[in-house]
Specification:
15 strands, 4 helices, 275 residues, mainly beta
Length: 275
């Protein structure tokens, strides 16, 4: 049975104008030119130093781009993106009339006005949908949250730290969030260097949680030594940023015991690989 949830913590930014693709292409980590009807692109906006600021799904229709983005980031993103317009012929605006839905475990029934595409990160993540007529969801946001935690998918600022997280720490390479061929974008130099020089020292990893769920930011320790930080979590599942040497065995966070569960899609150095 297909499950569909409405994500009220997500919003939509619309970009119109003849320069819309080229404008966004020079700013974000993925190849915006690949966005097309039925094909969304997951991408991130970085600092000049290559640290995460925001991520979003890019949808394309014949005359516009639509960004499915964390709602709380829209007041920050709109002025930030607008500063880069220069002479580009683009118009940016929030679209509060568009709801963001996600459907998984089947093929959703779409309304006539829906803009939809498979989640580009993993097939199991289902379909992302933007629509003015969301109807009645069959699942709650909490049920979606459990599903994406089980898959190990990050959820914006709940799991990533602004001006601190590197894309490759958060799985953007394996989850199709970076283009290595499109050319320059803001923060591209450090992103490429972390890949080619193997500079990643930590990863955002799913963990099972035995005990009370630790609040985000709780230090994760092994034998008293700090090895990471707890991020989001729910119902015995969570994500934690952990050093590569701490991806197996038991860890502690507050009063809880954590067990790392690196997913099959995650590429790890052989010494850290967990079966």
């Amino acid at each position: 049975m297909t499950e569909t949830a409405r994500l009220d913590d997500r919003g939509v930014i619309e970009i119109t104008g003849v320069d819309r693709v080229g404008f966004l292409q020079g700013l974000v980590s993925n190849d915006v030119a690949l966005a097309a009807p039925g094909n969304a692109v997951w991408s991130a906006l970085l600092t000049a130093q290559g640290k995460w600021l925001a991520d979003f799904f890019v949808f394309a229709t014949p005359d516009r781009l639509l960004l499915d983005v964390e709602r709380a980031q829209i007041p920050i993103l709109l002025p930030k993106l607008s500063r880069f317009r220069l002479r580009a012929q683009v118009v940016l605006a929030e679209r509060p009339d568009l709801a963001v839905l996600v459907a998984w475990d089947g093929v959703p029934t779409l309304s006539a006005d829906a803009v939809a595409a498979p989640d580009p990160r993993l097939p199991e993540a289902g379909t992302r949908i933007l629509t003015e007529t969301p109807g009645t969801p069959s699942a709650s946001p909490a049920e979606w949250d459990r599903h994406r935690l089980a898959l190990g998918l990050p959820d914006g600022s709940r799991d990533l730290e602004a001006e601190k997280t590197l894309l490759l720490e958060a799985g953007f390479d394996e989850l199709n969030g970076v283009s290595w061929t499109k050319g320059c974008y803001m923060g591209q130099e450090l992103t490429a260097r972390t890949r080619y020089r193997g500079l990643i020292k930590r990863r955002l990893v799913p963990v099972s949680v035995d005990g009370a769920m630790p609040p985000p930011g709780t230090p994760v320790t092994r034998d008293g030594a700090e090895v990471g930080t707890m991020r989001s979590g729910r119902d015995g599942l969570g994500l934690a940023t952990l050093r590569l040497g701490a991806l197996s065995g038991s860890l502690e966070a507050g009063a809880a015991t954590l067990t790392p569960r690196p997913p099959s899609w995650m590429r790890l150095p052989e010494a850290q690989a967990v079966t």
